[in-house]
Specification:
The structure is a single chain. The protein contains five helices and two strands. The chain is mostly helical and 106 residues long. It has a two-stranded antiparallel ribbon with strand order 1-2. The chain is extended, with a radius of gyration of 23 Å. It starts with a strand and ends with a helix.
Protein backbone atom coordinates (compact mmCIF):
# COMPACT_ATOMS: atom_id res chain seq x y z
CA UNK A 1 0.00 0.00 0.00
CA UNK A 2 1.32 3.42 -0.89
CA UNK A 3 -0.24 6.67 0.20
CA UNK A 4 0.42 10.38 0.28
CA UNK A 5 -0.63 12.92 2.84
CA UNK A 6 -2.32 16.17 1.78
CA UNK A 7 0.59 18.37 2.86
CA UNK A 8 2.06 19.45 -0.53
CA UNK A 9 4.99 21.16 1.22
CA UNK A 10 6.31 17.74 2.25
CA UNK A 11 7.17 15.74 -0.86
CA UNK A 12 7.07 12.16 0.33
CA UNK A 13 5.35 8.89 -0.27
CA UNK A 14 4.51 6.55 2.56
CA UNK A 15 5.09 2.93 1.57
CA UNK A 16 3.37 0.37 3.80
CA UNK A 17 5.28 -2.61 2.37
CA UNK A 18 5.21 -5.88 4.30
CA UNK A 19 7.96 -8.43 3.66
CA UNK A 20 8.48 -11.96 4.86
CA UNK A 21 12.00 -13.32 4.50
CA UNK A 22 12.61 -17.03 4.83
CA UNK A 23 15.94 -18.85 5.02
CA UNK A 24 15.45 -21.78 2.58
CA UNK A 25 18.09 -23.83 4.39
CA UNK A 26 15.74 -24.03 7.37
CA UNK A 27 13.10 -25.69 5.18
CA UNK A 28 15.26 -28.26 3.40
CA UNK A 29 18.60 -28.88 1.75
CA UNK A 30 19.56 -26.03 -0.59
CA UNK A 31 19.70 -28.09 -3.79
CA UNK A 32 16.34 -29.69 -3.04
CA UNK A 33 14.80 -26.29 -2.37
CA UNK A 34 16.26 -24.86 -5.60
CA UNK A 35 15.04 -27.87 -7.59
CA UNK A 36 11.51 -27.42 -6.20
CA UNK A 37 11.56 -23.67 -6.79
CA UNK A 38 12.71 -24.10 -10.40
CA UNK A 39 10.10 -26.81 -10.98
CA UNK A 40 7.42 -24.45 -9.65
CA UNK A 41 8.61 -21.66 -11.96
CA UNK A 42 8.53 -24.06 -14.94
CA UNK A 43 5.00 -25.12 -13.96
CA UNK A 44 3.82 -21.50 -13.71
CA UNK A 45 5.40 -20.54 -17.03
CA UNK A 46 3.82 -23.57 -18.73
CA UNK A 47 0.37 -22.10 -18.01
CA UNK A 48 -1.51 -21.17 -21.16
CA UNK A 49 -1.47 -17.39 -21.67
CA UNK A 50 -4.65 -15.39 -21.59
CA UNK A 51 -6.02 -14.77 -25.07
CA UNK A 52 -4.34 -11.75 -26.63
CA UNK A 53 -1.34 -11.84 -24.30
CA UNK A 54 2.17 -13.21 -24.55
CA UNK A 55 3.60 -16.08 -22.55
CA UNK A 56 3.24 -16.24 -18.78
CA UNK A 57 6.18 -14.57 -17.07
CA UNK A 58 7.66 -14.59 -13.59
CA UNK A 59 9.40 -11.79 -11.72
CA UNK A 60 12.44 -10.59 -13.65
CA UNK A 61 11.50 -12.06 -17.06
CA UNK A 62 10.47 -8.71 -18.54
CA UNK A 63 13.56 -7.01 -17.15
CA UNK A 64 15.89 -9.71 -18.51
CA UNK A 65 14.24 -9.47 -21.93
CA UNK A 66 14.48 -5.67 -21.89
CA UNK A 67 18.16 -5.80 -20.91
CA UNK A 68 18.93 -8.31 -23.67
CA UNK A 69 17.12 -6.17 -26.23
CA UNK A 70 18.86 -2.98 -25.11
CA UNK A 71 22.24 -4.76 -25.08
CA UNK A 72 21.67 -5.94 -28.65
CA UNK A 73 19.95 -2.87 -30.11
CA UNK A 74 21.09 -0.04 -27.86
CA UNK A 75 18.96 2.49 -26.01
CA UNK A 76 16.82 4.78 -28.14
CA UNK A 77 17.47 8.46 -27.44
CA UNK A 78 15.45 11.26 -29.02
CA UNK A 79 17.23 14.12 -30.80
CA UNK A 80 16.60 16.70 -28.06
CA UNK A 81 17.98 14.43 -25.33
CA UNK A 82 20.99 13.53 -27.48
CA UNK A 83 21.72 17.23 -28.01
CA UNK A 84 21.51 17.75 -24.22
CA UNK A 85 23.95 14.86 -23.70
CA UNK A 86 26.37 16.38 -26.20
CA UNK A 87 26.02 19.81 -24.56
CA UNK A 88 26.71 18.33 -21.11
CA UNK A 89 29.72 16.46 -22.47
CA UNK A 90 31.04 19.66 -24.06
CA UNK A 91 30.89 21.39 -20.66
CA UNK A 92 33.21 18.65 -19.41
CA UNK A 93 35.55 19.05 -22.35
CA UNK A 94 34.41 15.94 -24.21
CA UNK A 95 33.93 16.40 -27.94
CA UNK A 96 30.78 15.31 -29.78
CA UNK A 97 32.93 12.97 -31.90
CA UNK A 98 34.15 11.19 -28.78
CA UNK A 99 30.62 10.85 -27.38
CA UNK A 100 29.32 9.57 -30.72
CA UNK A 101 32.18 7.07 -30.92
CA UNK A 102 31.47 5.83 -27.40
CA UNK A 103 27.82 5.38 -28.37
CA UNK A 104 28.78 3.41 -31.47
CA UNK A 105 27.60 6.17 -33.82
CA UNK A 106 30.95 7.11 -35.35
Amino acid sequence: MTQRDDDASRRRVLNGMFSVLVDPSVLSERTAFEREALAFIDWVKASPPREGYGPVQVAGDAERAWRARRSAEGVPVDAITWREILDAAAKLGVTPARVNAAAGLA
